[in-house]
Amino acid sequence: MMKSSEVYKVSMAAVKDDSRSTNLLGTDISDAFLVSGEVSDSAASIKIPVSGSKGKGNVYVKATNTTGHWKYQILTLHTENEDIDLLTKK
To answer: Which domain holds residue 44?
Structure first.
């Protein structure tokens, strides 16, 4: 159910579309089977393990939905060497 949520889909698209992420992990980024956390109608807090040919990390997501649209407070790729704020484009 969590992988079918809008929050999960937006988060995975963000990490795959960010050049900083693909430089660290590779262009073949995929998620692990086990995603942890919770998603409800009004809030989400999840951790998505991701990996690619160059490395691995975790995407941390925190979002709220009060008006029918998700607002992301945290959308960060954490790797062993670097944290990338996916809410900011560079």
So the answer is: 2-85
**pLDDT tens-digit readout, 5-55:** 999 999 999 999 999 999 999 999 999 888 999 999 999 999 999 999 999
Whether residue 90 lies inside any domain: the answer is no
Which three-class secondary structure string do you get for 29-86? CEECCCCEEEECCCEEEEEEEEECCCCEEEEEEEEEECCCCEEEEEEEEEECCCEEEC
Q: Which amino acid is at 51?
A: S
CB 11 within 8 A of CB 59: yes
What is the spatial distance between Cα 31 and Cα 65, in angstroms, rounded to a whole number? 24
Query: What global pTM score does this model have?
Result: 0.93
Strands 70-79 and 43-51: unpaired
How many domains would you assign to the chain?
1
Is 34 inside a domain boundary? yes
Q: What CA–CA distance (Å, rounded) separates 30 from 4?
A: 15
